[in-house]
Amino acid sequence: MLRERTGSARGQYGRTVRTDVRAGIGPDRRQVFLDAGGVMPQINTSKVSRWDQHGRVHIVHVQRAGVQRVIRCGTCGWRQGAQFLPWLKAEEHLAEAHQATVDPTGA
Q: Helix, strand or coil for residue 42?
């Protein structure tokens, strides 16, 4: 059984939050949901960035839609669909098309 707490409270980023409290569980076990119907936002994009030998950074963006991924190069506009290992394909594109092999994170 879920009960909704009345009143308005300001959460992170100034949004009004709704707190649902499960019956029999103390206030320290509350779950806070955003106003969007209790759905937390999902991260659907990531990026792979590498530097070339001239110090220029090249970035390939990976966008997710279900199990499919779309890989898009910000430098040349290259696009490719990928279901498996999209980050590896992004690294391969950066190495082959732009000779960008230096990882800016140092890893």
A: coil
Identify whether 59 is part of a domain: yes
Domain that holds residue 92: 45-98
For 38-90, write each residue's pLDDT tens digit: 566 678 899 999 999 999 999 999 999 888 899 999 999 999 999 889 999 99
Measured from the Cβ of residue 90, the count of other Cβ atoms closer than 10 Å reads 27
Calculate the CA 94 to chain-centre distance.
Answer: 21
Q: Are 49 and 42 in contact (CB under 8 A)?
A: no
pLDDT at 35 over 50: no
User: Does 65 lie in the same domain as 26?
Assistant: no
In a domain, 51, yes or no: yes
Q: Please state, rounded to an integer, the average pLDDT across all residues of the chain.
A: 75
Beta-carbon contacts of 29 under 8 Å, excluding residues fewer than 6 positions away, are: 21, 22
Residue 38 zone, left/alpha/beta (φ > 0; ψ -120 to 50; rest): left
Q: Are residues 21 and 52 in the same domain?
A: no
